[in-house]
Design goal:
CATH topology of the largest domain: Rossmann fold
Helix content: 40-55%
Strand content: 5-15%
CATH class of the largest domain: Alpha Beta
Distance between the termini: 37 Å
Largest sheet: 8 strands, mixed
Shape: globular
Number of domains: 2
Structural class: alpha/beta
CATH architecture of the largest domain: 3-Layer(aba) Sandwich
Radius of gyration: 21 Å
CATH superfamily of the largest domain: NAD(P)-binding Rossmann-like Domain
Order of helices and strands: EHEHEHEHEHEEHEHHHHH
Strand order of the largest sheet: 3-2-1-4-5-6-7-8
């Protein structure tokens, strides 16, 4: 993988996912980072954790001084942010993390024909998860290498329509820990330590993840852990009857569509 330590990368909107981008870069030894956020206390905290980077509440400072911009702002705000930057985006590479905001819409908001733009969808733990991305026609091979440099060598370029499915994956897997935490609380009430309960869940999840990597399908894993007549199989059938999985997908789809309309 090509290393771009000399590139100045601006992270506009250094909230939760923006900070994860900074952390992933920092672990690579990258220090040419400009992080923006409106909260002055949050900026001071970032400066203490990531020594050597630049922090500012001025988005335009990042645009003027960075060659690559990662926009980690909310979908409802991204058009306003791009319009604010329009005159300073010449020949910049802009990478948007906003869900449900297509490249064509972002290009229209920015109104700058010389910039190159891409969309990246990833999980919150940027350094450990696999991103999917799509690029505008003007993007170069180097731009694609920069995406892999920031978001990991496993990042996959795909048709833009597939990025919504990466959002679905993040939602589906992100909801699971909360349900697990509730069960851990129940186990603690029954006398099991939190540490032991977490160890059991973590090892189960690791074992299932290993089978996914080996190529087993979800149905094959289910058949292994939930034979016909077992409690697990009965629970799965109940969830299917109650349309749990369908409702979850419908909710994600509605949320994505709502973001795209803002």
């Amino acid at each position: 993988m090509v290393v771009f330590l000399d590139k100045t990368i601006g992270v506009v909107g250094a909230g939760s996912i923006g900070e994860e981008v900074i952390s992933a870069l920092y672990e690579k030894g990258h220090r040419n980072i400009i992080a923006t956020r409106r909260d002055s206390d949050a900026l001071q905290r970032l400066s203490k954790i990531y020594k050597g980077i630049t922090t500012t509440s001025d988005n335009l400072h990042a645009v003027r001084n960075a060659e690559v911009l990662v926009l980690a702002v909310k979908p409802k705000s991204i058009n306003d942010v791009l319009q604010e930057m329009t005159l300073l985006l010449d020949k910049k590479l802009v990478l948007s993390l906003a869900a449900a905001k297509p490249i064509a819409s972002l290009e229209q908001a920015a109104n700058n024909k010389s910039m190159r733009i891409g969309r990246v969808m990833t999980g919150i733990y940027v350094a450990e998860q696999t991103a999917m991305y799509a690029m505008s026609e003007s993007c170069t091979c180097e731009d694609r290498e920069i995406v892999k440099y920031i978001f990991g060598k496993c990042a996959m370029e795909r048709e833009e329509a597939l990025l919504a499915h990466r959002t679905w994956i993040a939602c589906a897997t992100g909801l699971l820990p909360n349900a697990i935490e509730e069960e851990i609380a129940e186990l603690e009430k029954l006398g099991m330590s939190s540490e032991d309960a977490r160890q059991i869940y973590a090892r189960d999840l690791e074992a299932i993840a290993k089978r996914f990597r080996e190529g087993l399908t979800g149905k094959q894993i289910l058949n292994a852990v939930g034979a016909p007549g077992s409690f697990t199989r009965g629970l799965t059938e109940h969830l299917e009857r109650e349309r749990y999985y369908s409702l979850l997908r419908e909710c994600v789809t509605k949320t994505v569509n709502a973001c795209s309309e803002k």
